[in-house]
Specification:
The protein is built from 3 helices and 7 strands, in the order E-E-E-E-H-E-E-E-H-H. The chain is of the alpha+beta class and about 130 residues long. The strands form 2 sheets. Strands 3-4-5-6-7 form a 5-stranded antiparallel beta sheet, covered by helices on one side. It has a two-stranded antiparallel sheet with strand order 1-2.
Length: about 130
C-alpha cells in the first residue's frame, strides 16, 4: 500500500532484481528508478524522497537513501513510517510478518497485505 496525496493505493512495493529483494518506503516511482539504476548503475541514483532496502541473494542487507548506500549490521531491519514499531516488535521476538501487522495497528501510513519473501542461503565451500 502507498499513499498518493490523500488516497491509499494498493500496490507491490517489493521487487526482485538480479536475484536480490528490493523494497521501498516512500515514493513508489523511486522503486522503478532504483530498479533501472540497480541493473546497470550507469546513471546517478536519485531517490531523495524514499528509502530503499535491499536484501542480496548473498544475505547482505543495505539501505539506499539520497543515493547513498549504507550496510545494515543489525540482525533485522525495517524502513518507513512504521519502522520503529516493527523494529520494537522484532526485538521482542516477533517475526517480520507479525512485526508489520503490529506496526499497521500503530502507524496510520502502514497498511496493506503483508507478504514475505525468502532467499536461498548461498552455498559455502571450504577450501
Amino acid at each position: 500500500m502507498t499513499i498518493e496525496g490523500n488516497v491509499k493505493v494498493t500496490c507491490d512495493k517489493i521487487i526482485k532484481v538480479n536475484g536480490d529483494i528490493c523494497g521501498v518506503a516512500g515514493d513508489l516511482a523511486d522503486l522503478t528508478k532504483f530498479q533501472n539504476w540497480y541493473i546497470d548503475q550507469s546513471d546517478d541514483l536519485d531517490t531523495d524522497e524514499s528509502t530503499i532496502l535491499v536484501l542480496t541473494k548473498h544475505g547482505e542487507l543495505f539501505t539506499y537513501e539520497s543515493g547513498v548506500r549504507m550496510e545494515v549490521k543489525e540482525p533485522f531491519y525495517a524502513i518507513g513510517t512504521g519502522a520503529a514499531a516493527a523494529m520494537g516488535a522484532m526485538y521482542a521476538g516477533k517475526t517480520p510478518k507479525e512485526a508489520v501487522e503490529i506496526a499497521k495497528k500503530i502507524d496510520v501510513n502502514t497498511g496493506g497485505k503483508v507478504k514475505t519473501y525468502k532467499i536461498k542461503s548461498p552455498k559455502v565451500t571450504n577450501g
